[in-house]
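Entry:
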Amino acid sequence: MNRTQDTPAVLMEKLLRAVEAKDLTAIAGLYAEGAVLVDPHYPVPRMEGREAILEGLRWAFPKMKSFGFVVVHSFTSADGGKAVVEVDSHHVLEMGMKLDFSQVFVIETQDGLITRLRAYPPYGPGGVGALVLGLSRLWRRLRSAIGTATSVFKRKPRQGKGEKYDCKT
C-alpha cells in the first residue's frame, strides 16, 4: 500500500515500528506538518507541529534502551480517518528497568498522514486531580484496614457528630 491508502491503524503500526527502531526520519514521514501529539510521558505533554514532536522524541530516545509495542486491538471509524489502538508496551529504560503497561492511542489522519495522536496511559491524572484521586484511594484503603481491625474496637455513640471508638479492655 502507498501512504495515501494506509488506514489509521496501519499508520499507527508503522509509527510503532519506527519508534521501536528509533528512526526519526521514518517517524517524520508519518506526521503531517501541523500534527499534534498529546502524551503525558513527555516533559511537554502537548506537542504541536512535526518538529515539536520530533524534539520530544529526541528527548525520549536516549533515555530508553528499547521500546516494544504489541497491538492488542484496533478499531477504525466509519469514515476511515480515525482509529483507536490498544497496545501492550514493553520498554526498557537505559538503566535497565523494565516498563510493562497497556495504553490506548487515538489517531486521526488526513491524506495518509497522522494529524493528531493522543496517548491514554493506564494511570490517573496529575496535579490537583492526582492529589484528590490519591487522597480518595488512601481514604478507601484506610477505611478498609480499619474495617478489618474493628474487632479490637467497639463503637460507642458519641455526643454530637460522628462516632467515637473506644478500645476494649
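Residues 17 and 69 are 8 Å apart (CA to CA).
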